[in-house]
Amino acid sequence: MSTTQLRSKVVSDFKMHGLSLRGDATHLLVQFLQSESETRRNQWLERLIEKIQGLGLSRPVVGKDDLKAALEECVNAESAGEELLLVIDAFTVPRFTYVPERKKYVADSVLGKTIPSLLGDSDDKASIFVKRYTILYERMSRHELFAPAVIGSSKAEGPRFTLRKIEYLLGTTEKLDKVIILGMLTQLKEGKLYLEDPTENCFVLVEGEYIGSKKILKVITLGSPPAEPIETSRRFLGDMNFFGGPSAKSLRGSEKLKLVEERNSEAIFVFLSDVWLDHPGVMERLQTLFRGFSDFPPVAFVFLGNFLHASYGMDQAKELRDKLKHLGYIIISYPQLAQASKFIFVPGPKDPGIGGLLPRPMLPEFVTQDLAKDVPNAIFATNPCRIQYCTKEIVVLREDVLSKMCRHCIYFPSSGGDIAEHFVKTICGQGHLCPMAPHVSPTLWTSDHALNLFPLPDLVVVGDKFKSFTESHMGCTIINPGTLPRNEFLFKVYYPVTGQVDDSQISNLHT
């Protein structure tokens, strides 16, 4: 593309967004973009326009200084965050809002939305389900069953349907023979289920016959929304960083990190759940585990709570502090392991701290300070947390969510696949780690987005007391290590470069 053509494109793109560039600003931007490929130019222009829109200019004229400020922020954001391993706090996960006029997601910071307080208000509670519904509805609209036919396409196309909202049905008196709607199941009266627009439960797709004059919908089929493959989501979202971390764009497409990842083909993550440090058998097996990995240190050991089995009442925090300190002594007795590996601790529902709500903060400093002093590579994470390793995205949750779903499900599957398979399809389809009513699985209203699974990550680790399993769905792998002492000391080993997950066991050297 010639300089004249590039200048014309730059001016045109800014005009499309209601912005006008001064001559010196245009010259600076053309110089900056001249050496970039066409794809990269489009990405830079999109980012710059979003950044400038967030500057709050008094008039839609962009000067050289304004452009410089936006350029510096974008360059710094792009170069930041390309670390091999990042553990992302649930309370720092970025917020995005779908803007129908633009047909795209826009960061709340760009829209000028203020960061809400920790507890929030009633509006924040309502927005949880509105945002979940919007994500699902927008995602379903791209599904091959509901997307408009492409004019001139040579591909053989199957039947297509129109996805409706409940408000559409309430506004018509016609009889609709075949209607499909996306709504939320709720139980306003015992024994009776209702279908609503966003309220507070699990979303479902319903196919049926609607009699407008009587306001009756006769349901023929009811099911969970299908999940969307990772690559399909990424084609729509581009390189926006939904996952979190300091980088402005998703690291999934970083060629630099991809090369590092492939070079470290033997890199592994070790996941263990319910690591009861007050259980003699657990401490003994951990020493065996560390001894076995001492010559080939993993990238990280990820320990999921609960970290105590027994209840110690008022001394719970002190007891855990002592046990973690003892664990630190064991770790530093293997110097190569202590220096080369990270040790990530994700609290469980019964560990000291704010229990009963998700996301929950990391373990209190009083509990962890001795271990942190002895083991500098110890990382204390929130629950859930996110781990970025090179280009791989990992979500970790410690909650008995599968067990809760089994207790509160409307229809318990009697056949057609095992429970783990149904669970995996549910959380991927719902796009959320805990798609249940607030009284069953309460969340902090202003941080519920940290539990979203959109777009799907590469790996989801759910620490549940249910038996250990490994399942894959739509390009995403979901694993449950199971309760360590009750599961014959089984744990999971993840190979990021291939996505492979192995079942491993800590043997008892005395048997």
What does this structure look like?
With 511 residues, the protein is an alpha/beta fold. The chain folds into 3 domains: 3-79, Orthogonal Bundle (Helicase, Ruva Protein, domain 3), CATH 1.10.8.60; 163-223, no CATH class; 230-505, Purple Acid Phosphatase, chain A, domain 2 (4-Layer Sandwich), CATH 3.60.21.50. It is 32% helix and 22% strand. It has 14 helices and 21 strands. The chain has helices at 3-16, 23-33, 38-53, 64-79, 122-141, 166-170, 230-237, 255-263, 280-293, 316-332, 335-340, 365-374, 401-408, 419-430, and strands at 20-21, 61-62, 85-88, 96-99, 104-107, 163-164, 175-189, 192-196, 203-211, 216-223, 269-273, 300-304, 342-346, 378-380, 385-389, 392-398, 459-463, 469-473, 476-480, 490-495, 500-505. α1 (3-16) crosses α2 (23-33) and α2 (23-33) runs parallel beside α4. The N and C termini lie far apart (72 Å). It comes from Darwinula stevensoni. InterPro entries: DNA_pol_a/d/e_bsu, DNA_pol_e_bsu_N, POLE2. It is found in: Nucleus. Residues 269-470 form the DNA polymerase alpha/delta/epsilon subunit B domain.
Instruction: Report how far the terminal alpha carbons are from each other.
Output: 72 Å
Major pleated sheet: 6 strands, mixed
Q: What is the radius of gyration computed over CA atoms, rounded to a whole number of angstroms?
A: 25 Å
Under CATH, the topology of the largest domain can be stated as Purple Acid Phosphatase, chain A, domain 2
Note the overall shape: globular
**Mean pLDDT over the full residue set:** 88
The percentage of residues in β strands lies in 15-25%
- How many strand units? 21
- Structural class computed from helices and strand pairing: alpha/beta
What is the second-level CATH architecture of the largest domain?
A: 4-Layer Sandwich
- Fraction of helical residues: 25-40%
Contiguous runs where pLDDT drops below 50 for at least 5 residues: none
| Highest-level CATH class of the largest domain | Alpha Beta
Number of helices: 14
Q: Output the strand order for the largest sheet.
A: 3-15-16-17-19-18
Count of distinct structural domains = 3
Family: Belongs to the DNA polymerase epsilon subunit B family.
Subcellular location: Nucleus
Organism: Darwinula stevensoni
Domain DNA polymerase alpha/delta/epsilon subunit B: 269-470
